[in-house]
Specification:
With about 950 residues, this protein is mostly helical. Helices cover about 60% and strands about 5% of the residues. It contains 40 helices and seven strands. The strands form two sheets. Strands 6-3-5-4-7 form a five-stranded antiparallel sheet, with helices on both faces. Strands 1-2 form a two-stranded antiparallel sheet. A hairpin with a 2-residue loop joins strand 4 (about 795-805) and strand 5. Helix 6 (about 155-170) packs antiparallel against helix 7 and helix 11 (about 245-260) packs antiparallel against helix 12. The chain is extended. About 30% of the residues are buried.
Length: about 950
C-alpha cells in the first residue's frame, strides 16, 4: 500500500498558500506571507537596483571644489525629462518594484495597513523619484507614509527625505523648521541623527546662515559612522571657515581631513593640501618644508590621478616667489595631465596668459586668453571680463608691435656704421646656429625614419620567406645569444642606415661596380685633371649661392635713410606710446606700466600735440601711485600751459568756459553746424579738434564726422578712404566695428550707382556756379526766383546745393518730363525777361543723385548721358528702404531723403532737435548752402539726395 502522506502535505500546503494570498483577510498567516514576500522578494530586488543607481550617480557626479561643496553628492540638472524617459534604469527598476510591492501586497483593511513592509515600499518609491529629480511625486510618496504610517520605525528617516525634497523645491525655510522639530524628537544620537544635522546644515548654507551651518556640520561629523561622510563634512566646514575669512580655523579643518589619510576619499585629501597651499605665505613660511611636502605628494603613486591639481598649486607657489619660468612649466604640466575639471583648465590658460602679458609677450598672451574663453562658461562674469580684456589686448598687440619695431629701426639708424655691422653680425651668427641645429634635427629624424622603414621592410621580407618556405624560417638573423644584442655592425639595422646616409653625404650616388670611386668623374678618354676642375667649380657655385640673410649688406640696405621716413617712424612710434599709456591706464588699470609709457614718450621729445595730453594722463596716474610726482607734474602743467583746458582741470576750474571746451561739448557744437549744412566751415574745425583732443575716447566720432564732411565735399572715393581709416585705426571701438560692417554692406551699393540706371521720376535744370557766391550768381538766382513765381502750370522749387569745396549748383527742381525741361531751359535762355547765358545741364533726379555721390558732373556732360537710353539696374542693399520712392505731395517728386533710404539718422543727437528743424524730420543728405526764399520749403528739404549715408556710430552723444 502506497504512502499518501506527502500528497496530503502538498495539498494542505497549497491550500494554505491560497488562503494566505488574500490581501483582504487580517490573519497571522496573511500578514506574514505578504510581509515576507514583500521584503525578501520584491523590495530586495528594488534595493539592489537602488544601491547600484546611487553608486552610478555618485560616480558620474564631479565635485566643483572651486565652490562650497553640497552636503549630498547629487547634481540637479535643468533638463526636463519627457514622459517615459529615465535618467538611470536602476532607479526606474527600483520604482517599478516599489509600485509592484504596493499593488500586490498592500493590506489596507478598515483604513489600517496590516503589511509592515509598506512603509519601506513607499520610502523606496519616494527615493527613486527623488534621484530621478521628480521632486513633486517624491514629496507625495513621503507625505503618504507620514500620513498613513505614523508609527513606522522609519518615520524619522522619511522625515529627513521629505525635507531634502523640500530643499530641492527651494522651500529651505520650511525644511529648517521641520528639521528643528525632528531633532527634538530623535531620542538616540545615531546615523539618523547625523543625517538630520547634515541636511539641516545644507538648508542653512542655502539660506547663507554660515554659523548655524558650521555648528550642524560639526554634529553630523561627530555622529556619522561613515568615513567618507566625515571627510566630506570636515572639508565643507573648512570651506565655510575660509569663506568667512577665518583662515586658521579653515587650515585646522583641512588638516583633519589630511590626517584621516586613507579613511578619507583621496580627492578630499588632495584638495585639502591644495587649499592649505593657497594660504601659504612664502615670505613667512618654511619654503623648504613646503617644497619637500609637495615633492613627496607628487612621488606618491596614489596621487597620480590628481597631478593636475598638484602641478597647478606648485605653479601658484612659483608665482608667489616670482619665478615665472617654473610657474609656466608647472601650468603646462597641469594641462598635460589632462584634467577633467574644466575650470582648472581655464585657470591654467588664464594664468599663463597673465604671465606672458607681464613679460610683454602680448601675442602669446592673446592666444592663451583665447584658449581660456573656449573652456570657460560663457554665462559667468569672469568670461565677460576676460572677453573685454582680450579685445583690449588687440590694441596693445598692435601698438606694442609698432613701438618695438620703430624703436628698433630708429636705434639702429642712430648707430655708427661699425656698430650696425657688429650688431647684424651677431644676429647672423645666432641665425647660423639655429639653422645648424634645425639641420641636425632634420637629419636625425631622417635617419630614424629610414631605420624604421628598414625594420619594417625586413619584417615583411621575413614574413614573405616564411610563406614561401611553408612556415619554415629561411632567413637566419645571427645574434650572440637569445638575451644579448650583437655588436656586429651589419647586424644592427640602425647603424647600417646611418652608414648609408654618411656614405651618401661623402660620395653621392655611385653605381655598383669596379673602380666605383672614379666612375662619376673619370671615363675613357677623359682628362684626369677634370676632377680638380669640377671640385673648383663646386666651390665657386657654393660661394655664389651664399644665403643673403648671412650677409650684413642684406640688413643694412633695408634700413631707411630718408629724413622724412625716419620722422614718420618717430611720429608713429610716439603715437603708439601715447595709446599704450592710455590703454594701460583706462582699460587694464596697470598704472605703473602706463606711467613708464608716458615717461618714455616724453623722453622721445614728441610733437607738441602729444606733450600736454601725456602730462595730464601722467598726472592722473601719479595721483594714484606717487602723489609727490603728481604734484610736480601739476606744477609743470600750470606753469608751462596756463591757458589750456588741462590747466583748468588740474587747477580745479569748473567754470562754464572750461566745460564748453570739453571734447563732448565741442563735438556737439560741430555736429549742429554740420547738421545745418555748414560743411565747408566744419571741416577745418573738425581737423583742428582731432589734433586738440588726440587720445580722447571721443576721437573716433570726430573721425567719422570728418569722413561725412569729406564725402559731402569730395565724393565717394574720399568718403571710403576716411571710413577705412576709422575702421583700421580704431578696430576695437564701437565706431570702428560698425564702420567695418558699414563698408562691407553699404559702400558696394554706392559704388554700383551709375547714370541712366533707374527709372526717371522728375527732371532738374542744373547751373554750375563758383563758390564763394558772386554777384553774377545772385543775379541768376533772382531771375530763377522770378520765373518760379510767374510759372503757375507746374510747381517747381529752387535750391543752391554744395557740390565741391569751390563749386555749387543752382538747381531748378520738380519738372515732370524731359520735353518740359528742355522748353523751360530754352525760355530761360532766350526770353527777354530772363536771358540767362550761364551754361546748364538737364539732369534727371536719379542721375543728379549719382553726380552728388561720385562728383562726376563733367563726365555726365561730356558723355552726353541726356540722350542715351535708360537701362534700369536691379540693386540690393540691406537697409530699411531698398528702392527709391516718390516723396509725398509737398516735396520734390522723385527725391529720396536720407531717412527714407537708410532709416533714422544715427548722427542726430538722441532726444534733441537741432535749431532750424522745429521738430521736423532730420535734415536730408543734400548739400544746402543757403535757403532761397522763393519757396516756402526749406532749401535743405528741397535738395536732392546725395546718397552718402552717415556712418554708424556717428553720434555726438557719448555712450
Amino acid at each position: 500500500m502506497k504512502n499518501s502522506t506527502p500528497k496530503y502535505f502538498l495539498f494542505f500546503g497549497f491550500a494554505a498558500v491560497l488562503v494566505a494570498c488574500s490581501t483582504k483577510k487580517d490573519a497571522f498567516v496573511n500578514r506574514k506571507f505578504h510581509a515576507l514576500n514583500t521584503k525578501y522578494n520584491i523590495l530586495y530586488n528594488g534595493e539592489v537596483a537602488m544601491d547600484q543607481g546611487v553608486v552610478d550617480l555618485r560616480n558620474q557626479y564631479k565635485d566643483n571644489f572651486w565652490e562650497v561643496l553640497p552636503v549630498e553628492r547629487m547634481q540637479v540638472t535643468a533638463e526636463k525629462a519627457l514622459p517615459g524617459d529615465t535618467k538611470n534604469p536602476n532607479f526606474d527598476r527600483a520604482e517599478t518594484k516599489a509600485i509592484k510591492a504596493i499593488q500586490k501586497h498592500s493590506m489596507n483593511i478598515d483604513g489600517v495597513e496590516r503589511n509592515p513592509q509598506m512603509d519601506e515600499a513607499h520610502l523606496m518609491l519616494g527615493q527613486a523619484r527623488y534621484y530621478e529629480q521628480r521632486f513633486v511625486p517624491a514629496l507625495e510618496a513621503f507625505n503618504y507614509v507620514l500620513y498613513k504610517y505614523p508609527q513606522s520605525d522609519k518615520i524619522n528617516l522619511i522625515k529627513i527625505w521629505r525635507e531634502k525634497t523640500n530643499m530641492r523645491l527651494e522651500n529651505d525655510e520650511l525644511a529648517v523648521n521641520n528639521l528643528r522639530k525632528l531633532l527634538k524628537e530623535i531620542k538616540f544620537k545615531d546615523q539618523v541623527y547625523a543625517d538630520a544635522n547634515a541636511t539641516l546644515a545644507q538648508a542653512f548654507i542655502n539660506l547663507k546662515e554660515i554659523d548655524s551651518a558650521i555648528a550642524k556640520l560639526r554634529l553630523a561629523t561627530e555622529f556619522t559612522k561613515l568615513d567618507e561622510e566625515k571627510s566630506r563634512y570636515r572639508f565643507i566646514t573648512a570651506q565655510l571657515y575660509e569663506d568667512r575669512g577665518q583662515k586658521d580655523s579653515a587650515f585646522i579643518e583641512y588638516q583633519r581631513v589630511i590626517d584621516m589619510n586613507r579613511k578619507a576619499a583621496r580627492q578630499y585629501v588632495i584638495q585639502a593640501h591644495a587649499r592649505q597651499a593657497r594660504q601659504f605665505n612664502p615670505k613667512t613660511g618654511d619654503t623648504v618644508a613646503f617644497l619637500k611636502k609637495y615633492k613627496d605628494l607628487m612621488e606618491d603613486r596614489e596621487n597620480r590621478p590628481f597631478m593636475d591639481v598638484l602641478h597647478h598649486q606648485m605653479a601658484l607657489y612659483y608665482e608667489k616667489v616670482n619665478r615665472p619660468k617654473q610657474a609656466k612649466l608647472s601650468y603646462n604640466a597641469s594641462l598635460k595631465a589632462k584634467p577633467q575639471d574644466q575650470y582648472l583648465v581655464a585657470s591654467n590658460y588664464r594664468n599663463l596668459a597673465e604671465l606672458h602679458f607681464n613679460e610683454a609677450k602680448y601675442v602669446v598672451a592673446g592666444k592663451y586668453f583665447d584658449s581660456t574663453l573656449t573652456v570657460l562658461n560663457p554665462r559667468t562674469r569672469e568670461f565677460r571680463l576676460i572677453t573685454k580684456k582680450r579685445e583690449n589686448l588687440q590694441d596693445v598687440i598692435k601698438f606694442e608691435g609698432i613701438a618695438q619695431r620703430n624703436d628698433s629701426i630708429l636705434n639702429l639708424t642712430g648707430m655708427s656704421l661699425a656698430d650696425r655691422e657688429a650688431f647684424f653680425q651677431k644676429h647672423i651668427e645666432r641665425l647660423k646656429k639655429e639653422e645648424a641645429a634645425l639641420k641636425l634635427m632634420a637629419e636625425k629624424l631622417a635617419q630614424e625614419k629610414a631605420a624604421a622603414e628598414a625594420n619594417a621592410n625586413q619584417g615583411k621580407d621575413a614574413l614573405g620567406a616564411d610563406k614561401l618556405g611553408g612556415g619554415k624560417k629561411n632567413v637566419i638573423t645571427p645574434v650572440a645569444s637569445s638575451n644579448e644584442v650583437s655588436n656586429f655592425y651589419f647586424y644592427n639595422p640602425n647603424t647600417v642606415e646611418i652608414g648609408k646616409v654618411e656614405f651618401g653625404k661623402k660620395w653621392g650616388k655611385r653605381t655598383y661596380g669596379e673602380n666605383w670611386r672614379w666612375s662619376s668623374t673619370v671615363s675613357k678618354g677623359a682628362n684626369p685633371d677634370k676632377e680638380d676642375e669640377n671640385a673648383n667649380a663646386e666651390k665657386e657655385e657654393e660661394v655664389k649661392t651664399v644665403n643673403p640673410m648671412h650677409t650684413t649688406e642684406f640688413y643694412l640696405k633695408q634700413l631707411p635713410t630718408n629724413a622724412k621716413v625716419l620722422d614718420s617712424l618717430a611720429k608713429e612710434r610716439n603715437f603708439a606710446y601715447y595709446q599704450l599709456g592710455v590703454i594701460y591706464k583706462e582699460k587694464f588699470k596697470e598704472y605703473t606700466r602706463s606711467a613708464s609709457k608716458f615717461e618714455q614718450l616724453l623722453k622721445n621729445k614728441p610733437e607738441e600735440r602729444l606733450v600736454l595730453p601725456s602730462l595730464y594722463n601722467l598726472y592722473k596716474v601719479y595721483q594714484i601711485i606717487d602723489p609727490t610726482k603728481a604734484a610736480a607734474i601739476k606744477s609743470r602743467i600750470l606753469n608751462e600751459y596756463p591757458d589750456t583746458r588741462y590747466a583748468q582741470i588740474v587747477g580745479g576750474n569748473t567754470s562754464a568756459a572750461a566745460i564748453a571746451t570739453t571734447p563732448e561739448a565741442t563735438y556737439d557744437a560741430l555736429y549742429r553746424a554740420y547738421d545745418s549744412g555748414k560743411y565747408r566751415e566744419v571741416l577745418p574745425q573738425t581737423e583742428q579738434a582731432i589734433e586738440q583732443f588726440t587720445g580722447e575716447e571721443l576721437v573716433p566720432k570726430y573721425e567719422l564726422l570728418k569722413a561725412q564732411l569729406l564725402g559731402k565735399l569730395k565724393g565717394l572715393s574720399e568718403y571710403k578712404k576716411a571710413l577705412n581709416y576709422v575702421a583700421l585705426t580704431y578696430p576695437n571701438s564701437e565706431e570702428g566695428k560698425k564702420t567695418e560692417l558699414f563698408i562691407q554692406k553699404k559702400i558696394p551699393y554706392l559704388e554700383s550707382l551709375s547714370f541712366n540706371s533707374e527709372p526717371v521720376t522728375s527732371w532738374n535744370i542744373v547751373y554750375p556756379v563758383a563758390f564763394p557766391t558772386t554777384a553774377a550768381t545772385q543775379k541768376l538766382v533772382d531771375k530763377l526766383k522770378k520765373f518760379i513765381q510767374e510759372r503757375t502750370i507746374e510747381t517747381m522749387t529752387l535750391s543752391e546745393d554744395i557740390y565741391m569745396l569751390d563749386k555749387n549748383f543752382v538747381v531748378l527742381h520738380g519738372i515732370k518730363n524731359l520735353d518740359n525741361a528742355k522748353g523751360i531751359a530754352q525760355v530761360l535762355k532766350e526770353f527777354k525777361d530772363y536771358k540767362i547765358a550761364e551754361p546748364y545741364a538737364i539732369i534727371s533726379n536719379e542721375n543728379y543723385k549719382v553726380i552728388q555721390v561720385m562728383k562726376n558732373f563733367e563726365d555726365y556732360v561730356s558723355g552726353d548721358w541726356l540722350n542715351k537710353p535708360i537701362v534700369p539696374v536691379q540693386r540690393t542693399l540691406e537697409i530699411e528702404k531698398e528702392i527709391p520712392k516718390v516723396v509725398p505731395k509737398g516735396k520734390n517728386s522723385g527725391t529720396v531723403t536720407k531717412e527714407e533710404l537708410f532709416g533714422e539718422d544715427p548722427a542726430a543727437p538722441a532726444g534733441d532737435t537741432p535749431k532750424g528743424t522745429q521738430g521736423s524730420k532730420p535734415t536730408p543728405t543734400g548739400n544746402p548752402s543757403h535757403s532761397v526764399p522763393a519757396t516756402k520749403s526749406n532749401a535743405a528739404e528741397n535738395a536732392p539726395m546725395n546718397a552718402l549715408p552717415p556712418a554708424p556710430g556717428f553720434n555726438p552723444n557719448k555712450k
